[in-house]
Amino acid sequence: MYAYLKGEITFKSPAFITLEANGIGFHVNIPLSTYTAIAGLERATIYTHLIVREDAHTLFGFATQAERSLFVQLIGVTGVGATTAQLILSSMSVDEVRAAVLGEQAHILQRVKGIGAKTAKQIILDLKNKLAKETPDAAAVLLPTIDDSVREEALSALISLGFNRIAVQKALNQAMKDNPSLSKVEDLIKMALKSLAG
Question: Measuring CA to CA, which residue among 55, 56, 47, 117 is closest to residue 89?
């Protein structure tokens, strides 16, 4: 229904943004990769995918068409819902997902919350041939002092993704202990996600 939205970002968090276009504020769920890409922007073009259900219309947005394409492919896999697909793209880059699928590395996909052995194998089965036909995009890799605001933003984002507050706090504490040089909220969330998927 919507190919993309272009406008002013009026609210931004690692889990969703509010983007104003033509006087309408759209609530758009995003993965961490998109949050990273738009972190310094006031205006952006977000490639979107609308999921329509009886009880809700949910809009997902992405910084690149490659992300959106992979998201659509992921939610087409049996056992992978939109939230799980969002988590996959929050935990792994497009190239990392492609590499795991093409290399049939189910154990890497299983690091994501909600992905068990059966679902990981199903993702590989359904997507390997499709992804093999595509040319991978170059993935931007961010290099990993954490202040209270960064920790609180990470905490809020992870809770909004469905994680238990106590588990999130424990994971964040461990991530901060293991990586004291982390300064970006998206990097802190990625480290915590690995622990939560444990």
Answer: 47
pTM of the model: 0.70
Q: pLDDT tens-digit profile of 154-167?
A: 888 998 888 988 88
- Residue 170, Cα to own-chain centre: how many angstroms? 21
| CATH superfamily ID and name for 4-62 | Nucleic acid-binding proteins (2.40.50.140)
What is d(CA 177, CA 88) in angstroms, rounded to the nearest whole number?
Answer: 24
* DSSP codes joined into one string, 143-191: -----HHHHHHHHHHHHHTT--HHHHHHHHHHHHHH-TT---HHHHHHH
List 171's β-bridge partners, or say none.
none
Q: Residue 48 corresponds to which tokens in the numbers above?
A: 């979107």
Would you tell me how many other CB atoms lie within 10 Å of the CB of residue 113? 19
